[in-house]
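[Discussion] Sanity-checking designs against the backbone

I'm trying to build intuition for which residues belong where. Below is a structure token string of 128 positions. I'd appreciate it if someone posts a full sequence so I can compare it with mine line by line.
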């Protein structure tokens, strides 16, 4: 595995046929552990355990995962982009928080990958 994890993927054959925008975050939550992408102490898990809607995370500080792209109902196994972000206090914001992106992941046909950082992409192109 490289330092940012872009060489690692996660898949579960039982989930691949049923991945959809309504359950892709639940699917990502299976990727825990030393090589996993998911932090099981995140706000998503707190909301899940307390049976709260995910929109409640807007006012909660801490790590969270959000679905950025949704291919709608066009194809159940399309591309989904998920961002891991840290919600920090910000008294000037209406919600009282601001978001700091930490990393991004994409799920393509039921397999998760970590998106490379822009610096890595640019530096690999300039070295060629």
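Best answer:
Here's mine. Compare freely.
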């Amino acid at each position: 595995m490289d330092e940012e994890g872009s060489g690692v993927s996660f898949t579960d054959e039982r989930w691949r046929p049923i991945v959809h925008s309504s359950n892709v975050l639940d699917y990502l939550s299976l990727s825990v552990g030393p090589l996993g992408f998911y932090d099981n102490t995140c706000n998503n898990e707190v909301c899940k355990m307390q049976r709260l809607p995910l929109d409640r995370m807007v006012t909660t500080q801490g790590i969270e995962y959000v679905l950025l792209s949704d291919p709608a109902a066009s194809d159940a196994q399309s591309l989904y982009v998920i961002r891991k972000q840290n919600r920090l206090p910000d008294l000037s914001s209406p919600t009282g928080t601001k978001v700091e992106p930490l990393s991004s992941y994409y799920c393509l046909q039921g397999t998760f990958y970590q998106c490379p950082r822009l610096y890595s992409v640019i530096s690999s192109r300039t070295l060629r």
